[in-house]
UniProtKB/TrEMBL annotation:
PROSITE patterns, alphabetized: CARBOXYPEPT_SER_HIS
Organism lineage: Eukaryota, Viridiplantae, Streptophyta, Embryophyta, Tracheophyta
Keywords from the named record: Carboxypeptidase, Disulfide bond, Glycoprotein, Hydrolase, Protease, Signal
Native source species: Ficus carica (Common fig)
Family under the similarity heading: Belongs to the peptidase S10 family.
Name of the protein described by the UniProt record: Uncharacterized protein
Length: 485
């Protein structure tokens, strides 16, 4: 059916081939492989990272190999596979609790690339160790472990070693991706074998630097989106002299900033008291992952939930509507991880099923524990600092970088990503302009020298391919092919 059919039969580990998936009828459009790679040589209590590899539906021998990482830290990359850009759309099973039905996804990124979905670090998703001390990790260790995984993976799949290789991810993977990219680049310089044909990386709504991602992004975003008034914004801007990060400890700035943050965050997290109650009006109940989506986590909503005989509020059940034929996920109540996890009933039902685990060569629950979209098993330390030096170093070496943002995400607002990409001081080579998908303006971009592009996706939330799958496939395809977006 496709070019690599004979080669992959001979080169890929035969036991890793996925021959069927419960819930899906019919042949796969391309080959699928999955399984574990032990990265530390300890076969009894070592680190075992789980991957699911989907071969491109187009031209596997020439199309790029892309590693996909979800964030958290602690969230499984089956988030991307099930809910965002994997080969299938998942329809909830009927009756409730039964296996979902799988349908081919018209907007899957595997139409134009080979993709490795990796559960990382160990302890996340289906990755595991029998030694729980291995679940203590951080930025540097995770990057090193994932680099080791890649070297071992390419040893098992040598037929893909010459393909262009890219690293991609979203949210907290804004830390995973540049730190891993740096490890890969260093490995190439140091002559590590096999030599990975690394070309660049992409990050979406990516955690990068607290100075840019935090209040300095949030305050102008909230004002620009008409979530706080001119008066509140001007008071904060004046008191903080436009810097809501460095001046936040000064009394006047702090009091004005607290007013903004109380409106934005405290209401969202449900922390109400007589002291802050006066401010709980402007953004009460905003869904931080997409401010256009409804968000109900109030006592009244809990009553609605029980009346609806559902595990979710009625309004929450209406989230996630896109041009996809199946609304596969209802986003979080508006609370930031780890306060509430997203609705992952479809994925958890599927990935905790014994037959599914056998089909994808995953260990049973007795070994890995139950699959959770985002786990609290790991103890993670952010020890790499700001990602800006990593981005500068990588782009100065000539690696391509795409920084994209759903422009209605308030978790990691586009205002921060736009600001830190501009802060690199690179020359603008493609001045701010709209980009087009399906004959419509899909967002805006600015291109810099050193192969850096910043791009917004109009109307998208935190997980861009979930909200705007058609537009996401468009910019992804063009960027990988080196075509103008």
């Amino acid at each position: 059916m496709f070019i690599l059919e004979e080669i992959t039969e001979k080169a890929a580990p035969p036991r890793s081939l996925v021959t069927h998936l419960p819930g899906f009828d019919g042949p796969f459009p391309s080959k699928h492989y999955s399984g574990y790679i032990n990265i530390d040589g300890n076969l009894t209590a070592g680190k075992n990272l789980f991957y699911y590899f989907v071969v491109s539906e187009r031209n596997p021998a020439a199309d790029p190999v892309v590693l996909w990482l979800n964030g958290g830290p602690g969230c499984s990359s089956f988030d991307g596979f099930v809910y965002e850009h994997g080969p299938f759309s998942f329809e909830k099973g009927k009756p409730k609790g039964s296996l979902p039905k799988l349908h081919l996804n018209s907007y899957t990124w595997t139409k134009v690339s080979n993709i490795i979905y990796l559960d990382s670090p160990v302890g996340v998703g289906l990755s595991y160790s029998k030694d729980p001390t291995k679940y203590r990790t951080g930025d540097q260790q995770t990057a090193s472990d994932t680099h080791t995984f890649l070297l071992k993976w390419f040893e098992q799949f040598p037929e893909f070693l010459s393909n262009p290789f890219y690293i991609s991810g979203e949210s907290f993977a804004g830390i995973y991706v540049p730190t891993l990219a740096s490890e890969v680049a260093k490995g190439i310089k140091n002559g590590e074998k096999p030599v990975i044909n690394f070309k660049g990386y992409m990050v979406g709504n990516a955690v990068t630097d607290p100075k840019f991602d935090g209040n300095n992004a949030l305050v102008p975003f909230a004002h620009g989106m008409a979530l706080i008034s001119d008066d509140i914004y001007e008071e904060a801007r004046s008191a903080c002299k436009g810097n809501y990060y460095s001046n936040s400890q000064k009394d006047d700035c702090n009091s004005k900033l607290l007013r903004v943050l109380t409106i934005v965050w405290w209401a969202d997290l449900g922390f109400a008291s007589p002291v802050v109650g006066v401010f709980l009006h402007a953004l009460d109940g905003i869904n931080i992952y997409d401010i256009l989506e409804p968000c109900y986590h109030s006592p009244d909503a809990d009553k609605q939930k029980s009346k609806a005989n559902s595990s979710l509020p009625i309004s929450f059940q209406q989230l996630g509507m896109t041009e996809k034929p199946l609304p596969v996920r209802k986003r979080m109540f508006g609370r930031a991880w780890p306060f509430e996890a997203p609705d992952d009933n479809v994925a958890s039902t599927w990935l905790n099923d014994k037959a599914v685990r056998e089909a994808i060569h995953a260990e049973p629950e007795s070994v890995t524990g139950s699959w959770d979209l985002c786990t609290n098993k790991i103890h993670y330390y952010h020890d790499a600092g700001s990602m800006i030096p990593y981005h500068r170093n990588l782009t100065m070496q000539g690696y391509r970088a795409l920084v994209f943002s759903g422009d209605h995400d308030m978790c990691v607002p586009f205002t921060g990503s736009q600001a830190w990409t501009r802060s690199l001081g690179y020359k603008i080579v493609d001045e701010w302009r709209p980009w087009i998908s399906n004959s419509q303006i899909a967002g805006y971009l600015q291109g810099y020298d050193h192969n850096l592009t910043f791009l917004t996706i109009k109307g998208a939330g935190h997980t861009v391919p979930e909200y705007k799958p058609g537009e996401a496939l468009d910019f992804y395809s063009r960027w990988l092919e080196g075509k103008p977006i």
